[in-house]
Amino acid sequence: MTRIFAYVPFKNGVTDDVALEYPDAAKKIDAGASLTAVVTGHGADLDNVADALTKTYSEVIKIDNEALAYPNAEIVRKALTHVIPADAIVLVPHDTFGMDLAPGLSIKLDSAYAADVVDFEGMDGATLKLIRQELGGAVSTHVTCDAASGAVITIRPGTFAPADEEGASGTVVDKSGEAGDLSAKRTFLEVVEAEVGDVDITKSDVLVSIGRGIEDEDNIEMAQDLADAMGGVVACSRPIVDAKWLEKSRQVGTSGQTVKPKIYMAMGISGSFQHMGGIKGNPFIVAVNKNPKAPIFQVADVGIVEDILDFMPELQEAIEDL
Amino acid sequence: MSMIITPADYLLFGFFPTVIFSFLLPVIGVGLFTYIIARRIAPLVRANPDYRFDNIPERIKNLIVVWFGQIRQPRYMRAGVLHIIIFAGFLILSIRSTSLVIIGLDDGFIFPGLDGTLGTVYNVMKDYAATAVLAACIIAAYRRGIIRPARYAVPEKYGHDHTAEAVFVLGLIATLMISESMFEASAVAYNYQALGDAHFPAVFSLAWFFSKMLGFASFATLQGLHIIMYYVHDVTFFFFLCFLPLGKHFHVITSIFNVFFMRVKKGNIKPVKYGVSDEQLDDLESFGVKRLEDFTWKHMLDFYSCADCGRCSDQCPANTAGRPLSPRFISIKARDLIFKNYPIKSGVIYTSDKLLVEDIYTEDEIWSCTTCGACEQECPLGIEYIDKMVDLRRGMVDEGMVPQSLQKPLKALEKRGNPYGKMEKKRADWAKEKTFAQTHTVKDLGKDTADTLYFVDSITSYDDNMQDIARRTAIILEKAGMDFGVLGKGEKDSGNEVLRFGEEMLYQELKAQNTEAILESGVKRIVTADPHALNALKNDYTGLPPVKHISEIVAEKIKSGALTMTPCKNRDNVYVYHDPCYLGRHNTIYESPRQALDAIAGLTRVELEKSRDRSFCCGGGGLMLFYEPEEETRMGVIRVNMAADAGANVIVTACPFCLVNIQDAIKVAGKEGEMEALDFTQLIEDHLA
Amino acid sequence: MEILVCVKRVPDTAENEFELNAEGNDLDRDDLVYSVNEWDNYAVEEAIRIVDNLGGSITVVTVGDDEAEEVLRREMAMGANNGVLLSDDAFEGSDGRGIATLLKAEVETGNYDLILTGAQADEGAGQVGGMLAAMLDYPYASLVNKIEPGEGKIKVGREIEGGNQEMNEIELPCVLSIQTGINEPRYVGIRGIRKVAGVEIPVKGAGDLGVDAGSVGEAGAKTKRVDYFVPDPGDGAEMLDGDTDEIIEKLIEKLKAKGGL
């Protein structure tokens, strides 16, 4: 039987969204596989998170150690190598922590490695079939992964269907004693928070991006309200910066920022390739433009022919009513 | 009673011959002047070579028209007229001043040739000249000191104000005029009183007034004044001579050389190094201007020659738009550095490890230039800027100092032959547009042959909004009965801006590839609708068939009757033609597009105040579209507002880059719906019979 | 400081339109242009800045065929001192682990204090740096956007979610994967590349590196790409019709499905 171990990161006692996405991924790997959540940390937060995970996972392994209080990938890796069996499949999110942890973990476990997986097509014997993307999302590939001696897989967050939180009533297994030596040659110092008020559009998953269709500086507020409702930030195309309505740091395009959101709301943007060149990572693009011939409709996923000045407030209201 | 005693014979305190001063002052003055000039020439000797002894007839013509004729001065009427008066006065009085120096040694001296009637005429002229110069100086000082035209102001970041120096020099000139006139007037008054000799100066001249004023002065006063004024003149004259090379008035001496050596060709860019062929470029240790001595001697002479008149910066679109560039200070900062590096007195010599773009200039300053050429067109002294900008950029490119926003298009040009990174095979896709393709086919000269090559260039080939220009151009050529084709994927970017942005080797590659493809196609002539391509192929490339802009073809074909125009379809519109820099200033094609437009009956056309060789750049083409300058207002917006002020609602241009910039600017200026921009080919094709 | 920077020659995403070949199992590579992986440029620039301040030398290494030499030359034109090309028929088809194995062998021939890689390359895996570090038992940090060298150790900033920066102290020797934006890489033109055109670049095969040919290449790969495919991009946008309320309803449904709400 395939044994899958899913590493669940958490922050301030709240688990990462990926915790609910693992069950779907695991099912796609092998419907009959066993799925175990693994959490590492220290103190009450860890205990709470482990307990909470029992609602989704039948088994939750926790490793408690002072050295794991901050998720230093170098230390987490050491801890995991001691508790994960050699032939297991390990799931890790493909995020800034997963990228730090997973490649080295695969070496230490002597397992195969596949990164940023967007879909699985099941097991063929010990061979795992999966789908990932290359060249900045321009092409997809089918990949086989020999998992006979285990595999470490990072999955793209947000691509697997989130599970119902109340699906299981599992147990917590404390393996703190098996973690072994947790010294590391890399020491965590501090997290330097991004400057307050300094909006970094490259970091946001939802961008409400405005172009000439906004017509007037005062109308930017509408876009801001919509962005707030959607939990995103306001970006823009070059003319808005030229008009000095927004700072340069908000501009998307070859001459501005390169962004990789999940949702890109192109509001009154015509869609020059200079602008589109700044959008990477194949986001879901919603284009609203009153000109039905705007080139943006060629590249968008969803197109709406409306005046953004009428459309944005209505959409915002509808979202807030949800 | 005898005549007044001249400085050559005068005995100071009754025993000391002043002729000793008359001898010593010129010896010291000329000696000092020679030394100063030698110091000033020192950096020119160490500078890079510059070939400026070609096209001698053209250079002599410039000397006559630009230097002697002061043709560019009246472009700024008030300052220009004042300058012409002072300049003409100086020319006339230079003979008098030289004579005066010798008169101090030999009072009988008369300048060769000026002993007869000519001498009498000359004397009248010089009296009026001195008077006019004095008057001009007073007005000029009033302008500089009291009215203070904005053009002369020095922003804090560029250093100290030059008004004091300007007024001081005007004072020196005034002193020369007054002392010369006084010297003469005192002699006239004396001799009249003593002998009744009535050789009065020209009526109402300064000397005439003085001689009348001194009519009742005592002999002793007049004698004293005569001697004192002579030496005031002598001292001032030599002081002035030695003072000139120390500041902005060096142009009084250098202008004649600077104009003689000024640019005679248009539109081209200097080689990386004179005397080094394109094939030898790889052997060069360093490219471009990184340190002071990397400038050519002519460019250093330019720095010496700058009179700080501010006309270049007043015309500069980058300066007007609030970019960190003011061409005048490119010269002045370099001159200040030369003065620091090559001091007149021995002393601490300023040295710096920094590149010029880190020391006296900034990177943004040098990237801000659109190479529109307005500054060079204006400079009364023939100072060049574009070649200096390109040389400084070559230096930056060589050091890897290229803004990230420009690195992407440069890399794409290297890999794909266009700045957008689009695929080569899609270069002629504009001809595949459905409605166009149904009725028109464009030959691919990779497979087919034709007489004429239509060189499309990158923006018209790839930019969705500009491809229409290509289709219109093709239809115009077709209707004009021309046998033409395109190079398709064999065409690369013309490299006009690649060269001007300092990426010489990339430009060389593009040039080599295009040249080979063009020659291989066997065409007899080249046509383009992109003035930047026109300029590169015509002025930078060598050995190609003749190149013309589509507006020239249209004007010719209308004249020959091959093309006829229908009456204007939009009688309510008011059209204005915007001269693209690379069509107008760099290639002097001003009339063809206007003639073609005027051939459309009933078309209402107005002119911009800044038009033809004073056209105001739209914001720049080629790589400039990718560069993100710091600026207060976009150049295009300024231009659109100018067109609105001229009463136009349709701006017609003849360059795809102008069209992009102006179309954008109309939107930024909030004039969408009120104004529109059209390319020349669009308007013409719409009105072809 | 002796620095090794691992670089890769990749299809240039900015300058290509990717299409599949006639068989549909590989990219149509005829019209592709290749260049150095964007992230690697930042790594080399960072190495140059460190060496400018502290002295030392920079070696760039890549695994690839003859054509991969061009990226080594480009990085040497930027300022790297030496280049090494790891090339052997046996290396073809290596997965990340195979590449890391080869790089490990190369690292062990030198005496490097610092090994830099780009945070990721064309495959978007971001795997080689972390694997190499684990094989060498060197400490590792990924997505590094700040480096402050110190005595025997360095301070590194990692780019983490929300635009925050995680500061770490890391002992030398170590492996770091460099994120874009850490610096502004200098421009390299044709002239720069020509200047280093004559510099000898040693080519090392399996024998030179002392690696078992069976542990790398296709034979050693546990992860294999079967084919390429392009998910149906559709014909432009799906246009939403109807009155505004209907449109908004449909849109919200879609946004929900994409995790946008």
UniProtKB/TrEMBL annotation, chain A:
SMART domains: ETF. One of its GO terms (molecular function) is electron transfer activity. InterPro entries: DHS-like_NAD/FAD-binding_dom (IPR029035), ETF_a/b_N (IPR014730), ETF_a/FixB (IPR001308), ETF_asu_C (IPR014731), Rossmann-like_a/b/a_fold (IPR014729). FAD binds at residues 212, 237-238, 251-255, 268-275, 289, 307-308. Binds 1 FAD per dimer. One of its GO terms (biological process) is fatty acid beta-oxidation using acyl-CoA dehydrogenase. Its cofactor is FAD. This is Electron transfer flavoprotein subunit alpha/FixB family protein. It comes from Desulfobacter latus.
TrEMBL record, chain B:
Keywords: 4Fe-4S, Iron, Iron-sulfur, Membrane, Metal-binding, Oxidoreductase, Transmembrane, Transmembrane helix. It comes from the Bacteria. The chain crosses the membrane at residues 12-38, 81-105, 125-142, 163-183, 238-261. It holds the Pfam family CCG. SUPFAM superfamilies: alpha-helical ferredoxin, Respiratory nitrate reductase 1 gamma chain. InterPro entries: 4Fe4S_Fe-S-bd, 4Fe4S_Fe_S_CS, Cys_rich_dom, HdrC_iron-sulfur_subunit, Helical_ferredxn, NarG-like_sf. GO terms for cellular component: plasma membrane. Residues 297-326, 359-389 form the 4Fe-4S ferredoxin-type domain. One of its GO terms (molecular function) is oxidoreductase activity. This is (Fe-S)-binding protein.
From TrEMBL, chain C:
The keyword Iron-sulfur does not apply. Keywords: Electron transport, Transport. CDD domains: ETF_beta. Residues 24-213 form the Electron transfer flavoprotein alpha/beta-subunit N-terminal domain. InterPro entries: ETF_a/b_N, ETF_b, ETF_beta_N, Rossmann-like_a/b/a_fold. Signal peptide: none annotated. Pfam families: ETF. GO terms for molecular function: electron transfer activity. This is Electron transfer flavoprotein subunit beta/FixA family protein. The keyword Electron transport applies.
